[in-house]
Amino acid sequence: MNMKSKMLTAGVFALALSTGANAAMVEMAGDGFKISYDDSLVGLFGTPILAGNSIEFAPGGSPGYTAQTDSGVDVTNSTFSMVVTADEGKFLDGFNLSEQGSYFSFGDSAGVDVSGKLTVKPLVPNGPIMSETIASDSSFEGTATPSFEAKEWTSTTGFSDLNLTSAIVSIQSILAAYVVPPVAGASYAFIEKTNSSLLVSAVPEPEVYAMMFAGLGLVGFVARRRM
Length: 227
Description:
Blueprint: H1 3-19, E1 25-29, E2 33-38, E3 49-51, E4 54-57, E5 66-69, E6 72-86, E7 90-106, E8 110-122, E9 130-133, E10 151-159, E11 166-179, E12 188-204, H2 206-226
Antiparallel strand pairs: 1-2, 2-6, 3-4, 4-12, 5-12, 6-11, 7-10, 7-12, 8-9, 8-11
């Protein structure tokens, strides 16, 4: 572990100790980066799984990551935060979030919605906080008469060209279901999230690219001399 990673890890563990005795920091290695998070604060997202350069969440349990109502408004909210650190010789170029789930709503006054934010805070002094809104990629369609047929929803958002060595990345996800009075006839609204995937782009630093091209040029030069 290099000095940068040691200092970052020490800072994360110090933060964990200050937030409570039950906090336990977990570190996982991905493809070109590492993540650190507090396993007592995973919320409704559940424990993340690393698959190459993708951080996967699969909310489960009962009632799971849902919002539902037959009268009024029900809102479910959860946020997952982690520290993402590029490996030696690489930098974090981008983060792309995709989420999926299902929903149904029926009745003239019923509906559902998805909201939230993907936030990136570089771990540098006075680093700017960057955020992108999470919203459904398409409109939600309900029915006038009772129907429990589940439809699918998706959302995508992200950042690119960041050039970071480490950052605090937070995913805030909000699900809402509502039935607005006065209610005429049967009405119900239900929405759930079943998956979140954060794709991390960790690419070689510009100096590494330059060394690679210089090495290829030297190999070509030597080959021509031998010919």
